[in-house]
From TrEMBL:
Cofactors, names only: pyridoxal 5'-phosphate
One Gene Ontology term of the molecular function aspect: threonine deaminase activity
Entry-linked CDD domains: ACT_ThrD-II-like, Thr-dehyd
Name of the protein this chain belongs to: Threonine dehydratase
Highest taxon listed in the record's lineage: Bacteria
Catalytic reaction list: L-serine = pyruvate + NH4(+)
PROSITE patterns (UniProt xref): ACT (PS51671)
EC numbers for this chain: 4.3.1.19
Length: 414
């Protein structure tokens, strides 16, 4: 990947002047989110970590910026006819909210399998929602048909110079607040955010390295830039950056302006979401936690640097968030399920529970299994979910159980 484009290289479609003009345009109507130092995350990662809290926007995501910048450049005729987009995520809500605020009709086409909560939220911001097709591609194709037949203005989620300029305003604010930042770590889906932020970074008065982050399951921009052919698909926590095909404009800008792209696994994404809630007391979706996941996964890449990363969205399903937090507790040893083999006789379960009591371990659930087991008829399996202080406390419990003659094992997470 290139550093600064060579003087003879063709001009890129977005310049610093475009981003600065976008910031002037949208600043009165968006939240000026804070960029704050995290002492604890800095200690954990070995970098000086600054977080940009874009999850505090009204619709809980940075996508408002590009959407609003695009809406404000439409002429009166286009405003009167309305705008349309295909999205099941943050772009839909950001566009719907600002279109309604400006008196512009908006239509959002979503796949039929879109979660009800996202449909309701988008309608709540004033958009007309149309459900079409089982995939994003089908919804996108239908939106382009409606654009042509009804004269709507299509607002692309990332592959548009106006969108890119709007998203780049995130970096304008970060560098104004923390001029010492020498590395930006930015999630990549379609590439609009990193293209805009890299435009600002390249024009700074000191070198700023720009590193993109993609989920391992969706390395689409990584493949495009590096000429690789890693598979692209699957159930990722970072659904906001789960893009199979990056934009043409954004791929060109990423190739010219971005220094590196790193990939992060699902476990790192889960850990990052959990840490941000526990340490920063802030709710972040999987895509929004991708920057921190990169710092946790590749500490040697960022050690000693002054890193700015964007918590780009906070729209995560509450049940999914609960699962992520519980899984993190289990991996840290604070929540565990033990499988204990017992003899089927009076007092057996009492004697096990007594050891939990002596070790100060809280029992949450007990699952007693007599029938569906390969043990002899007089044997049984008991699964006990419990809460401990930490991994060392759990180890002490296991030692105590085995010292009392019980056969016990941990039921591991995947």
């Amino acid at each position: 990947m290139a550093t600064n484009p060579a003087p003879s290289a063709p001009a890129l479609p977005v310049t610093l002047a475009d981003v600065e003009a976008a910031h002037q345009r949208i600043a009165p109507s968006i939240v000026r989110t804070p960029t704050l130092h995290s002492r604890t995350l800095s200690q954990l990662t070995g970098a000086e970590v600054y977080l940009k809290f874009e999850n505090l926007q009204f619709t809980a995501a940075y996508k408002e910026r590009g959407a609003l910048n695009t809406l404000m450049q439409l002429d009166d005729a286009a405003r009167a006819k309305g705008v349309i987009a295909a999205s099941a995520g943050n772009h839909a809500q950001g566009l719907a909210y600002h279109a309604t605020r400006l008196g512009i009709p908006s239509t959002i086409v979503m796949p039929r399998n879109t979660p009800t909560v996202k449909i309701t939220q988008t309608e709540g911001h004033g958009a007309t929602v149309i459900l079409e097709g089982e995939t994003f591609d089908a919804a996108y194709a239908h939106a382009r048909k409606l654009e042509a037949s009804n004269g709507y203005s299509f607002v692309h989620p990332f592959d548009d110079a106006r969108i890119i300029a709007g998203q780049g305003t995130v970096a304008v604010e970060m560098l104004a607040d923390i001029p010492s930042i020498d590395m930006l770590v930015v999630p990549i889906g379609g590439g609009g955010l990193i293209s805009g932020m890299a435009t600002v970074a390249r024009a700074a008065d000191h070198p700023i390295e720009v590193v993109g982050v993609e989920a391992e399951l969706f390395p689409s921009m990584y493949n495009r830039i590096n000429g690789t052919d890693y598979p692209c698909g699957g159930d990722t926590l970072a659904e906001g950056i789960a893009v199979k095909e990056p934009g043409g404009i954004t791929a060109r800008m990423v190739e010219a302006l971005v220094d590196d792209i790193v990939l992060v696994g699902e476990r790192s994404l889960e850990e990052a979401v959990s840490l941000l809630l526990q340490i920063e007391k802030t709710v972040v979706e999987g895509a929004g936690a991708a920057g921190l996941a990169a710092l946790l996964s590749h500490p040697e890449r960022f050690k000693g640097r002054t890193v700015g990363t964007v918590l780009c969205g906070g729209n995560i399903d509450t049940r999914l968030l609960a699962n992520v937090l519980l899984r993190d507790l289990a991996r840290s040893g604070r929540l565990a399920r033990l499988r204990v083999r017992l003899q089927d006789r009076p007092g057996a379960l009492f004697n096990v529970a007594k050891i939990f009591h002596e070790q100060g371990v809280n029992i949450i659930e007990v699952y007693h299994q007599r029938v569906f087991t390969t043990l002899p008829a007089k044997g049984l399996i008991t699964d006990i979910e419990c809460e401990t202080r930490d991994a060392a406390h759990l180890d002490r419990l296991m030692v105590a159980l085995k010292a009392s003659g019980f056969e016990a094992s941990l039921v591991e997470l995947a």
